[in-house]
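User: Could you check the structure of this?
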Amino acid sequence: MSMQLLNLRAESLTHPEKPPPEGRPRRSPMRRGGGRTSGFNRLVMLSLWLVLGAMTATAQGPSVPPLPRTMQIDGNTYVSLRHLARFYGFPRARPVGNQLLLEDAYIRIEFELNSRRIWVNGIAVWMHHPVTQHRRHWLVAEVDARTVLDPMLRPGPHVASLGYQRIVLDPGHGGSDPGGRGVQGSLEKELALDLSHRVADYLRMANNEVFLTRTDDQTLSLSNRMELARSWQADLFVSLHFNTAANPAARGSETFLLAAGGQPGTQSSTADSFPPATPANRFDGANQCLAYLVQQHLITHTQNQDRGVRRSRFFVLREATFPSILVEGGFLTNPEEEAKVLDHEYMERMAYGIAQGILAYQSLVLRAQLEH
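Assistant: Sure, the predicted structure tokens are below.
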């Protein structure tokens, strides 16, 4: 099977312009042709693609082909990484110690035994359940093969039936709800609004319809945010926030998507019980694609610490009728990170990274529609 990496499908959109930080390597998106294309020209080229493909989008849920064969062990359903490697065309991988690597020319996925965190081309992605072992088989939960790995290995079926050009940005908090407060007195509601306007500017350059749930300092309930997005017939929804923590050392950027039905979020115990699937879960695959691409480009352009693609049940994720993610740009309670966020040049790079991730997702949808 021909491998279709998310980066490769988005190759005309962005090429990381700075080397990755020391530590875990990140692969550059693949490119065709000879030279580097300017960010503005990439936006212009994408706008032409979007106009040509806009009429092909529908509101139907994705129809995804079958997965590799599963295994039943102690009442739980798993997929063997050996079977998964064969199904997606990876060279056979053997574990080394407590790690296992699947790799080909385009993608590198690192698994660690008993860990929910995997690394996809250097970006952290959190699964619902840890990698486990049964006899000689390394196993991932079937739900993770279906909602985490499959969308990144063959994204087309997960996004081909979806729209992509009406984008709703949701600046978190506002009005009587200030959100988090930084050590220098910065307010999350103000920074989220500033970031949203910057992201919107980049997206409009690519001929997108962009709506903001608030354009000034107003109080807006979570349900009102969803009602506005539905009234605008949103194709995708991105809520923008900044983090706080009791520990001032906490730092980094993270992107959240909805946890699968009946499955734990990233910060939940796998032993707890969880709500069943909701209509929003029909976008699990698209959410994974969108969240991964936004996190990848955000980290590439800011070089901030990567806290990964995570799963939760925030209101704006579980009540969405369209692909929806929530981005936490950084920790205002970390003095160094707050100082970066207050720097206009850094905030511009953050906005550019988020916008590039959204544009890469749009390119992914459009290519899938043209191929199907």
